Amino acid sequence: MSKFIEVTAGTKVLINTEEIACVEPSKDYLDGSEVCVITLIHTTKHSVEGRKFITKESYEEVKQMILGTK
After folding, report:
1. Whole-angstrom distance, CA of residue 9 vs CA of residue 37
2. What is the pLDDT, as a whole number, of residue 30?
3. How would you class 59 by CB atoms within 10 Å of its CB: exposed for 0-12, middle for 13-18, buried for 19 or more?
4. Cα distance between residue 70 and residue 62, in whole Å
5. What pTM was estimated for this model as a whole?
6. pLDDT of residue 54
């Protein structure tokens, strides 16, 4: 069964944790606040798609959501 987390990337976005390839900390280029970059990979029968989301949540917050402690 898939697990989803809700993050803020401009608007609220639901992300399937099974499609997460990478989670890395970063800084917002506008105000220097701590943000998180989530890289998703979605594979279908005919193609592979990759997307990056820059979230307003910090790396630690996203990590806790994925682990299920938040």
Report:
1. 10
2. 86
3. middle
4. 9
5. 0.84
6. 93
Q: Over 80: is that where the pLDDT of 52 sits?
A: yes
CB 37 within 8 A of CB 24: yes
Sort strands 4-9 and 20-27 into parallel, antiparallel or unpaired.
Answer: unpaired
Q: For 40, phi and psi rounded to 5 degrees?
A: -110, 145
Biggest CA-to-CA distance, the chain: 41
Q: Indicate the SS3 state at residue 54.
A: strand
Task: Give 5-29 as a 3 state SS string.
Answer: EEEEECEEEEEEHHHEEEEEEEECC
- Position 27, amino acid: K
β-strand 34-43 against 11-16: which pairing, if any? Answer: unpaired
Q: How confident is the model at residue 70 (pLDDT cuts 50, 70, 90)?
A: low
Average pLDDT of the chain, as a whole number: 91
